[in-house]
Amino acid sequence: MHLIETFYRLVSRFRYPVSLPEEVASDLGLHVPNSVSFQEFIQYLSSPEHRPTKLRRDMPRILAESAFESALKKESFKSCSFFSYYFNKSWLVFALHYDPEGRLRRVYLQCPNCISQEGFDIPI
């Protein structure tokens, strides 16, 4: 069974050579197969029924940031932090916003190169 899973991940790398939907979903505490298209993945993340299990409102900043293990780029500023994943010539950026005490208040997903989808809040 392990051999089949390894082969499946290898085939998925041809479709998603850098970041996999499965990796991003795992960072959020969700389960999404690599077989979904990028657009389906964005729609899945925008659905209010699929809330991240690793992120919650008012959690400490250090815990919120530690959830994004597989992010390619990690940027931290005074009141927010950005975690970026790369998908076929398009970045997917999670912006985490904190209150003055360093507690998570908002998670906003941006896809700067996506024409069909603007950014949106992820319910936490």
Strand runs, count: 5
Order of helices and strands: HHHHEEEEE
Q: Distance between the terminal alpha carbons, to the nearest Å?
A: 35 Å
Radius of gyration: 15 Å
Structural class: alpha+beta
Strand order of the largest sheet: 1-2-3-4-5
Discrete helix count = 4
**Percent helix:** 25-40%
Beta-strand percent range: 15-25%
What would the principal axes of the Cα set say about the shape? globular
Give the oligomeric state of the chains in this entry, treating copies of one chain as homo and distinct chains as hetero: single chain
Mean pLDDT level: 88
Query: What are the low-pLDDT stretches, counting only 5+ consecutive residues below 50?
Result: none
Biggest pleated sheet: 5 strands, antiparallel
From the structure above, extract its key features.
124 residues, alpha+beta, globular, five-stranded antiparallel sheet, single chain, 5 strands
Could you characterize what this model shows?
By secondary structure, this protein is of the alpha+beta class. Helices cover 30% and strands 24% of the residues. Strands 1-2-3-4-5 form a five-stranded antiparallel β-sheet. The longest helix has 14 residues, at 2-15. The mean pLDDT is 88.
